Amino acid sequence: MRLFWFLMIFPMTAFAQHGNSVTQERIKQFCAVDGSSMDAPDLGEFVSRLDHRFQNKRSLHFAQTLFTKTRQSFLRRYAHDASFRQTLTRGQYNCLTGTALYAILLDHFDIPYKIVETNYHIFLMVATDDGEVLFEATDPVNGFVDDAVAIQKRIDRYQRNVPLQIANPDKKYYTYNVNLYREVSFEEVRGLLHYNLSTEAYNVKDFESAVKHLEQTVIYYSSPRLYEFSTMVLLAVMESDVEPAVRHGYITRVQAIRKKQLATMASLKQ
Asked: Which of 31, 73, 78, 182 could be bridged to 85 by S-S, CB 3.0 to 4.6 A?
C-alpha cells in the first residue's frame, strides 16, 4: 500500500528582518535534506528585485506579487516526490517544498505568517496591512486568497482532512488514523522535508533511506503522524526479505526513533 504523504503546516510567527546571508543559510539547510553535496542555489538576485520594487512589504499588493513571482520563477510543475533542491533548480514542487520556499521569503521580508499542518496538506496564512491572506502553493490559479469568506471555506475544507491531490488514482493510498490541524514552527519544516523523503523511500522499499530520513525527522518534528508512520516502517521491515543482520539493525533504529517520539509526545502533554 502506497503511503500518501500530505504536505504540511505551522504557527503564527513574526521574525526580525533577515539579511540575504540568513536567508541563504536556511536555503542551504533545506537543500541539504536530500543529501546532495552540491551548493545551494542563491536567491539573492530574486529577492533583491522584489526588495527594490516595493517599499511597503506588509501591503496586500506586495504579498500578491511575492506569491505570483515566486510561482512563476520556481513553482512550475507539480511533482509529489520533489525535494526542496529540485524546487529551486528544476521548478518541480509539491505542497511542502512550495510552502517552505514561501516561508523563507516571507521571513526574509519580515512579513508575519503562520504555517498550518493537516493530514494531507500544508498552507500559509500571511498577515498584511489589509488583513490576512492565504497562500496555497499547489493552486496555480486560485492559490492567493484574500477574501475572508473564501479563506474560511478553504480552511473548512482543509480541516476535513481530505487528500487534495492523488498522484495516481490506480494505486491504493494509506489513510492516517490521526486528525491533524495544527501550527508548526519554521524549524519543523526541516523535519517535514526529511519525512517526505522517508515516505518516498518507504514506498519503493528503500528501507535504508526511509530509516535514515526518519532519524532526521524526529530531531526536528514531533507528531502522532510520525509515530504512526514509524509503525508502518517497522512492520514492513519485519516482514521484508532483507538479510537478517541488516533487518535487525533497521528494527533497532526504528525502535529507538519510536522511543524518542513517545518521550517527546509525553513531554508536550505535561
From this structure: 31
Split the chain (270 residues) into runs of 10 and give each run's mean pLDDT: 41 37 87 90 90 91 97 95 95 96 95 92 95 96 96 90 54 60 92 95 96 96 90 96 96 95 70
Residue 174 grid coordinates: 494509506
Amino acid, single-letter form, for residue 44: G
Residue linked to cell 497562500: 135
Q: Which helix (H) or strand (E) holds 77?
A: strand 77-78
CA distance 47 to 254: 41
Q: Where are the alpha helices (DSSP H) in the chain?
A: 20-31, 44-53, 60-74, 84-90, 95-108, 148-159, 186-203, 207-220, 224-239, 244-269
- 224-239 vs 244-269: helix axis angle to the nearest 10? 160
Alpha-carbon dihedral angle through residues 62, 67, 72, 76, given to the nearest 10 degrees: 170
> Rounded distance, CA 103 to CA 101, Å?
5
Cross-strand partners of 40: none
- CATH code assigned to 1-205: 3.10.620
> What are the residues facing 132 on neighbouring strands?
127
First to last CA, the chain: 36
pLDDT of residue 215: 97
Predicted confidence (pLDDT) per residue in 109-145, tens digit: 999 999 999 888 899 999 999 999 999 999 989 999 9
226, amino acid identity: L
> By C-alpha distance, which of 187, 189, 205, 199 is closest to 226?
199
Torsion over CA of 88, 92, 96 and 97, rounded to 10 degrees? -10
Q: Where in the chain is the domain with CATH 3.10.620?
A: 1-205
